[in-house]
Amino acid sequence: MKNLDMLNFSEHQSSSIYQYIFDLFTTLGLPEQQAHMGTAVGLLLAFALLLYALDYLIRNILYSALNKIARRTSTQWDDFLLANKVHVQLSRTILTLLTRQLLPVVFLGFPVLTATIVKFLDLLVLFMVYHLVNSLLKTCRDIFRTSKGFKDKPIDSYLQVVQIFLIFVIGTLAVSLLTGNSPWSFLVSLGAASAILMLVFKDTILGFVASIQVSANDSVRVGDWIEMPKYGVDGDVLQINLNNVKIQNWDKTIVTIPTYTLLSDSFKNYRGMQETGGRRIKRALNIKMSSVRYLSTEEITALKKIHLLAPYIEKREREIADYNKTRDTGSSSPVNGRRMTNIGLFRAYVLAYAKHNPNIHQELTLLVRQLAPNEYGIPLELYMFTKGTQWVYFEDTMADIFDHLLAAIKHFHLQVFELPASDDLRMLMAARNFS
Question: 369 pairs with which residues across the strands?
Fold first, then answer.
């Protein structure tokens, strides 16, 4: 009963205001129809000025309060509220709801106009609520991005899914308001068009499923270095959205691929290498086969001067001497018994050099192996890991190692295989012509 009296009191007050303005226009000599229009326009202008003043006050009060909280606290969530303009959307939503409640009372004398305006304001309330919720969702996204547990997760994909669901709900309610039908009847009618909707939103559905599986399987994170030669991808993942993944290649170009390609196509992820802390060196020196031979005693003695190799040579000399002595191999041929070869000592030197290199990771696989001979000679492959994964550091370390080995290989009386150059062919032809 008390609420009813308050409602009647509000209607009485609004009717008195309307009647007062209407009487004022009629005393000025305006016809009744023009007096009605003047009253409507006057009330509308006065109401607009009132709403503008309220909007200014609400926004400034909210902004001042949030700004003070943001300055006094060390947390970031209040800063994100300001950055995403949540206070602006909240003030607009409050004013829209206030307008929706007061405007029918102010324009009580215009039932047709009031019904149209009320329907428009109902739609406006829906859109204001959407923008407010969307700002809050963006704030939550920014907060999750700063969290260690969600920093490398596809937060944007989850946000877009919620946004799509929110748009669908707002759209359903808007259609229900415009048509005057229940939202459930609209949803039932959509069931017949589900096949068309599946076709229209095919990429969105595939992207949504892919985002969930990528996140659940932890196959790709934001910041990972991935490689997909089929799509020209070789760089860091910048963003994982609902429909696409954005990658920045090493040449600073941006490549965008559909999210579901991370499931349908294969790709290489270098995250394991980065987390291990070592980047693999897998490169071979091709030794010319004709330069491989046994070493003489004098040559072995000269190689003992190499500090990294001296302990290995002394150990091998004892082993070889014991072996040959027990089997009485004799000295008729160097093939009889065991002998040191230049490629064997060079392989031992490369291994010792790598083990004493401060830039090589000693806790990961480290070996120097001889691959099957081919038309380019005998590949002597270095398989090891650098201590850092940065590209520049990796390339510098590998270049330093091979610079040294290419210069040191001559001391082992070995030659690196290379195809004949034009100068070699000219010298050969000149020699033949001279002879």
Answer: 381
Q: How far apart are CA 380 and CA 99, in angstroms?
A: 82
- pTM attached to this predicted model: 0.55
* The two structure tokens encoding residue 406: 């290419």
Q: Residue 223 half-sphere exposure, CB side, CA atoms within 13 Å?
A: 10
Evaluate if residue 261 carries a pLDDT over 50: yes
Per-residue pLDDT at 200: 64
The 10 Å CB-count burial string (b at 16+, else e) for 334-345 is: eeebebbebbbb
Q: Which of 288, 286, 283 is nearest to 415 (CA)?
A: 288
Distance of CA 203 to the CA centre of its chain: 19
| 146 burial type by CB count under 10 A (0-12 exposed, 13-18 middle, 19+ buried) | exposed
C-alpha separations of 379 from 2, 18, 264, 372 in Å: 98, 99, 37, 7
Domains of the chain: residue spans and CATH: 2-145 (no CATH), 152-269 (2.30.30.60), 277-326+337-422 (no CATH)
What is the C-alpha separation between 182 and 176, in angstroms, rounded? 6
Q: Name the percent of the chain lying above pLDDT 70.
A: 77
- Find which of 37-46, 80-89, 226-235 is predicted with most confidence, using mean pLDDT: 226-235
Please write the tens of the pLDDT for every residue from 167-216.
878 877 887 777 777 767 666 666 555 666 666 667 777 777 777 777 76
